[in-house]
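Fill in residues.
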């Protein structure tokens, strides 16, 4: 059996109390919480797709939404780490928006192994492709390739958003 290397650990930097007083630390913490709250709210807007009406349409067809399918696919104790959540954020295509470019891309575990999941969001124009959808999918595949992870594609797509 080989010997393990000894790696001495030394603190790096200075304690924050050395350059910030407790009031400043509290002020920074509150500012960070405000930003995190905004981020959580924006993620929920994206997560809602086009809204409850479209979730009901998916369920009426006997289907599940992309995130519901992802939840069923992943291991029970595995986290879901979405990436590319804000692709197309704030961009209008005519009068319509395409939250997350109409596709969910996320890391999770399946069968104990990390994977990249790509799933068309069928609550956004029935999962059709929008501008930047191909780029988002390609980026997710590149991340999986670099990390040597399998890609699981949950397809439920009506095609392309034809006006674009």
């Amino acid at each position: 059996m080989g010997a393990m290397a000894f790696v001495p650990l030394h603190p790096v930097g200075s304690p924050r109390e050395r350059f910030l007083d407790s009031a400043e630390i509290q002020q920074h913490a509150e500012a960070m919480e405000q930003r995190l709250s905004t981020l959580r709210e924006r993620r929920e807007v994206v997560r809602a797709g086009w809204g409850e009406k479209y979730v009901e349409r998916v369920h009426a067809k006997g289907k599940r939404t992309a995130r519901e399918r992802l939840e069923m696919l992943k291991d029970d104790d595995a986290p879901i780490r979405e990436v590319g959540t804000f692709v197309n954020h704030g961009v209008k295509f005519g009068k319509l928006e395409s939250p997350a470019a109409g596709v969910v891309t996320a890391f999770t575990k399946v069968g104990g192994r990390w994977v990249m999941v790509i799933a068309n969001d069928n609550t956004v124009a029935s999962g059709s492709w929008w501008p930047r959808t191909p780029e988002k999918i390609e980026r997710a595949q590149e991340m999986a390739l670099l990390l040597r992870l399998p890609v699981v594609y949950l397809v439920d797509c009506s095609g392309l958003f034809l006006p674009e």
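Residues 22-47 form the longest helix (26 residues).
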